[in-house]
Amino acid sequence: MNQSVTSLVSKDDIAAFQRDGAICLRGAFKDWIEPIAEGIARNQREPGPYATNVVATGEPGGFFDDYCNWERIPEFAAVVRESPAAGIAAAVMQSPSAQFFHDHVLVKEPGTQKPTPWHQDIPYYFLDGEQTVSLWIPVDPVREATLRLIAGSHQWPQWVLPLRWKDDGNFYEDVSRYRPVPNPDIEPDMSVLEWEMEPGDAVLFDFRTVHGARGNLSTSRRRVLSLRWLGEDVRYAERPGKTSPPYPYHGMQPGQRLRPDWFPQIWPET
User: Fold this and answer.
1) Per-residue pLDDT tens digits for 49-71
2) Per UniProt, what is one Pfam family of this protein (predicted)?
């Protein structure tokens, strides 16, 4: 790790990430709050083809969800390429490099009752590997609507059934390979990690870590940019249906590294 990354992520942080599948880094992006907030505002003004409101018609609040826009939103491109994100990702993944997968904007408006269901990210993706990390970065103070994660679930031998967020239906037709969606609030032997957060803090979690979030019943917005990173061991893998994001016409075959012209290596600089 170079000095700038060493000051943000410690050996204890790395050990906790490897053990629990999630950590919270305080103030790691305090110098990036304004550009991230500006990028989120631009994304909402100019939504991409995958943008959706997860809240159904007639339900209170709003939940803006969009991804794969970083190359057309200059504020996001700057965060990806110039912030400490890539170096931090490589450090906690214990990977000699960090390849960028995609951005994800999640905005829960005040009074939104809709929770984010418990899920893992990796069943939705066309990849396999143990060196993965998402950086979940709020630009608003977050209390009850913070991210919640099941400690150690990145080591579960069977993945959790992926659902469609809007209607909670099954994401794939074939559900035989998945375990039921857990409810750690009532199931024993599950430890939930959650942190109250300030703007510029970041929760880092493995793509395999089970996570969710409550609705936003506060009087303030909850705006988040999530950055998804890949390490050296990640390879393309097929899924039993259309993935999210879909990335049509990618041309990759099982076992290949993800194509670097679509998913660039940011750390170290090439």
Assistant:
1) 999 999 988 899 999 999 999 99
2) PhyH
